[in-house]
Amino acid sequence: MKKTVSILLSCFALCSALALMSNSAPQTESLDSETRYESNEPRAFTQLSLGISGGNGEVVATATNTFTLFVSTVQVYVELYYSSTYTTDYETMTMPTMAYTPDLDMGNSLSVDAKTNGEQRYWLARVRYNENGSGWKEIITEPVLLDANGNAV
Questions:
Q1: What distance in Å separates the CA atoms of residue 63 and residue 8, rounded to the nearest whole number?
Q2: Number of domains in the chain
Q3: pLDDT (tens digit, 9 = 90+) per residue, 116-151?
């Protein structure tokens, strides 16, 4: 029993000494002051939802900021696309409308709408957003077939 306690105390002392040495050891990383400053800042996190709805000859794409952690500025573009043939590539589709806001606060939405012009088409919505200048991210819906009135087929 004495031997076990002695070994445990020795292990504890060794671990404590190693911890103290690692905390007092000089940093060998070569980070510039800007990077070091940024790494200590809280990172913003934003969750956006994106949806398409339709009816009465219109199609609406809505992006909603459902959650933001920490104070941040969230730039948002909402774009609506259509095509007469099925495709998941928005670059080959027509974009009749888009909207932009320099800051979409939590709980707020940004919408765009377009007329169906009495035609059945595939519609797709895309949102691009940037949190505090951290780089652009995007969300793209699956194509949805809507009839001439904007109702899902």
A1: 58
A2: 2
A3: 999 999 999 999 999 998 899 999 999 999 999 999
Q: In terms of domains, do 62 and 123 share one?
A: yes
Domain interval for residue 33: 2-40
DSSP letters spanning 25-51:
SPP-----HHHHHHHHSPPPEEEEEEE
Q: Are residues 51 and 97 in the same domain?
A: yes
Does residue 13 sit in helix, strand or coil?
helix
What is the average pLDDT across 75-99?
98
**pLDDT score of 142:** 97
Query: Is the pLDDT confidence value at 18 over 50?
Result: no
* Residue 152 DSSP symbol: B
Residues 25 and 51 in one domain: no
pTM given for the model: 0.71
Q: Strands 45-55 and 58-69: what pairing?
A: antiparallel
